[in-house]
Write a structure and sequence with these properties.
Blueprint (H helix, E strand, L loop, with lengths): L3 E6 L5 H14 L4 E6 L9 E3 L5 E3 L1 E3 L5 H11 L4 E4 L7 H14 L3 E6 L9 H9 L2 E4 L2 E2 L5 E2 L1 E5 L5 E2 L13 E4 L1 H10 L2
Parallel strand pairs: 1-7, 1-8, 2-5, 2-6, 6-7
Antiparallel strand pairs: 3-4, 9-10, 11-12, 11-13
Helix pairs in contact: 2-3, 3-4
Keywords: ATP-binding, Cytoplasm, DNA synthesis, Kinase, Metal-binding, Nucleotide-binding, Transferase, Zinc
Subcellular location: Cytoplasm
Main location: cytoplasm
Amino acid sequence: MAKLYFHYSSMNAGKSTTLLQSSYNYVERGMRTLIMAPALDDRFGSGRVTSRIGIGADAFIFDREADVFAIVAEKHHAESLDCVLIDEAQFLTKEQVFALGKVCDELKIPVLAYGLRTDFRGEPFEGSKYLLAWADNLKEIKTICHCGKKATMVVRQDADGTTVTAGAQVEIGGNDRYVSLCRRHFNASFHKTT
């Protein structure tokens, strides 16, 4: 039975690295994967999933209006797929998460989605909220705060390193803009500036 998996974490925990390793494991065994990524995240160029440790792979790019079920069904019809992997899954819409469930249930293809659980304010992303609700299997990928405790939150910082507490939910960036923290240090940092 194909399942929908959601691998979640804060920033810099190795989600893209884990996705790329999972795809490699399938391919190494002669299986075919489809890596998908939202058009919104173009930090490393469009059409690529790239890890901070330097590995990468081509990806099929989709936007918020895309019918991911139709995309996967078409690709599967053209050449049988054994797994679908989604990078930056927090950017999925509710409808797209539902469609990924249909990929598992109707096309019998497992889907491995990787993404953030919450934004810089501690609020859930739309895609993450529905993946947490509807995925068959949830797995936390862990990273650490500067204090050594498990980091579960992320803060956005301005150019001076000051915590940003307001603004658009989505602002693409990496280590230059975001820091992963444990809940205690998130609260201390976030509430110090509000």
